[in-house]
Amino acid sequence: MKKRIMIIGPTQSGKTSLVNALENTNRPLIKTQDVIYGKKTIETPGSYIENPSMYRYLIAIAQDASHVLLLIDPSRLMEVYPPGFAKAFNCPVSGVITKIDLAGQNADWAYRQMKKIGVNEPYFSLSFKDNTGVEALKNYLSANELRGGGLGDEVLNGNGTA
Ligand SMILES: Nc1nc2c(ncn2[C@@H]2O[C@H](COP(=O)(O)OP(=O)(O)O)[C@@H](O)[C@H]2O)c(=O)[nH]1
Ligand SMILES: [Mg+2]
User: Fold this and answer.
1) Cα separation of 154 and 162, whole Å?
2) What gap in Å lies between CA 74 and CA 101, rounded to an integer?
3) Rg of the Cα trace of the chain?
4) Minimum-distance ligand to the CA of 15?
5) pLDDT tens sequence across 12-29
6) Eight-state DSSP code of residue 13
7) Which of 74, 75, 118 is nearest to 94 (CA)?
8) Which residue, 30, 40, 117, 152, has fewest beta-carbon neighbours within 10 Å?
9) Which residues have beta carbons under 5 A from ligand 2 (an ion)?
């Protein structure tokens, strides 16, 4: 099974918008009730990161991920992730700052949050309103895939049919 990009973020932080961009579809934004597996992505419910008793599900689901994206919405100055959270995953973790059109002035706050969570740079700032930052993130993710970030089953099984 090919591994997917896992998207974590609180309610309304832009998870579904990012999934649609990575999947290249335009399916309507529906409130996430549960984990949604797309062709390339895994979207997790906001309630999983908003509720510490659900963290273990995020960590279990990440077994099927080649890359984890942690989303921060700087238009809501809310500390969602516990310190060091990024270190719980054994695949690469990247930081995505959403809705930069609404709260560009809070970008420094978001960078400090990322550092506290244990996410290494580069951080990706996105706006789906202005359509900025998405291509840079996509390029980074494909380059990571080519580098073999997060070994897929096809690699582990050695059958080479990626
Ligand atoms: N201004 C602005 N709004 C956004 C952006 N990304 C998402 N939104 C809006 O924020 C709301 C929540 O987005 P959604 O992708 O459904 O978030 P989710 O709950 O994390 O899946 C929706 O009304 C989106 O249209 C953005 O970059 N800029
Ligand atoms: Mg959603």
Assistant:
1) 6
2) 10
3) 15
4) 1
5) 999 999 999 999 877 765
6) S
7) 118
8) 30
9) 15-16, 32
